[in-house]
Every structure is written in C-alpha cells, then in structure tokens.
Amino acid sequence: MSNLAAPPYILAITKLDILDEFxxxxxxxxxxLDGKTYTEAPPANAADMARVKVNYETxxxxxxxIAKVRKFGDLPKNAQDYVRAVERLVNVPVKWVGVGPxxxxxxxxx
Length: 110
Hints:
Elements: E1 11-13, E2 24-33, E3 36-38, H1 46-49, E4 53-60, H2 77-90, E5 94-98, E6 106-108
Parallel strand pairs: 1-5
Antiparallel strand pairs: 2-3, 2-4, 5-6
Protein name: Adenylosuccinate synthetase
Binding site for GTP: 15-17, 98-100
Enzyme class: ligase
C-alpha cells in the first residue's frame, strides 16, 4: 500500500461475494477512440461511446463461497489479488471488503 494515495481517500468494496462463481473477472482499464487512449473516463457523448474500444485487465475468479471469511488473509488468493488490483488501478487503499449480505460480513483491512 505504500504507493497508494494517503487517507482521507479510502475505498470500500461491497458485494465481493457476487463474483464468487465467475471463472474470470474483467475490469475496464482504458478506452481507445480515434487513436487516443483514455484512462480517466470514457468519452462523454453517446456517438463517441458507440465507437470506443474498451481495454480490460482480466483476473482469475476464485469460484468458492467467501461469505463466512472475516480476515483478508483467509480470502482465496485470487480474491486478494483482485482487491489489490483495484487498489493499484485507482491508487487508493481499500479499507473494507463486503463478503456477504449480513452486517458482520465485512473485512476491515486497516
């Protein structure tokens, strides 16, 4: 986490458990339009958006139920890798990860 933005910017990832059954997870990391690459946001107008090519980073799924996990280190490695990738991609640390529908189904990372 040393290269990430310092708080007050922190993230909460909710509903990580809904990804439990995916074999792979694609995350849009940039957009290409007319030879230009955009990493901050896709084009704002609908005509341009229709012509955009989306570039994805693909992550391996974990294909196991994580609803009862309460420690980050107990998550499957692929789930941990996904959370760390989100941190890297947005340059903001993840403080909480929701892993199920119940109030106690949250992991606090720091």
